[in-house]
Amino acid sequence: MNKALAEIQPLDKEKGKKVREYIETLTKPPGSLGRLEEMAIRLAEITSEAFPVVSPPGVMVFAADHGVVEEGVSAFPQEVTVQMVLNFLDNGAGINVFSRQIGAAFEVVDIGVAADIEADGVVNRKVRYGTANFCKQDAMTREEAENAIAVGYERAERMIRQGSRCLILGEMGIGNTTPSSAILAVLSGQDISALVGVGTGIASEKIIHKQKVISRALKERKPDRNDPIDILAKVGGLEIAGMTGAMLAGAANRVPILLDGFICTVSALLAKEICTLAGDYMIAGHRSVEPGHEIALQLLGKKPILDLGMRLGEGSGAAVAFPILQSATLMLKEMATFTSAGISKEK
Question: pTM for the whole thing?
Answer without folding.
Answer: 0.96
